[in-house]
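Good morning C.,

I know you're traveling, so I'll keep this short. The sequence:
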Amino acid sequence: MIASTEEFLTLLRAGNYIRAMLGWNEFLIDKYTPTHKKEPVSGTDLFYLILFELINHGFVTEDMRHIQLIYAAVEEMPEFSAEDVYTICLMSDAALWFQIYEKKNVLEKYKLIQPDKEKITLLMTQSLPELGKKQCIPLFERRRDSWDANRGKLSNEVRELKAGRKKMEALLDLVNAYAQRLKAKAPLREGVLESLRQFLLYALDCEQSREKIDNFVEQIRQDLPEDWEEEEYLGKISPLPLYRRLLGYGQLAWGFFSQPALAAPETPSQQISP
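The tokens, ready to paste straight into the viewer:
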């Protein structure tokens, strides 16, 4: 689950869109609704919470392209539930209003030191002279129409996202097959494999994902897997650099490096008795 809006934005900027979106609305509701009185949060209140979080936790105009891409791709991503899709639509509206607030220089007026849901709703619904409805609503509608019109222009990026997801699904199939063969044979490696499996469930093909996958596989390699594991699974999930493939990464390689250094041969002068 997302632990903060800062974490959400970090994932967003890294291109990890599925992981960023899944559970963000849950985080917002948990943050602003006390545990002892859980109650449904209306769409209007959720919109205000999203806009408030974006204003107060580091969202910048450059992040708009990520929101726009998620908005364009949402119908192509079966990983998103109906609730996630609804949150994405609210988030895209909030991001557009963020731009309007920024343009009108009123962002500072929407910051609270100790906010709660009621205070945020009151704050976000206050009337400001800079935000006259006659000016702002038509401006928002033009921006929304522009987004809708530009969805087709993002088709290449959406295709890349889908292709990246397919890569992760192929790796997930490999991990599942590997885990099945390894079952009850190597507890440490099985534990790391399960963590990798959970990660791949919601990963997209991006630099952040590849680094994470490489780290999981490196942990498995440090447990000295058998040669078949490297050849059939690990080498396909996270290929070794050429120099390590030439050297070999099995028990033999680790055994070689764990041996004491060979003694240097004696020089002729050392061999002569005094």
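Safe travels,
E.
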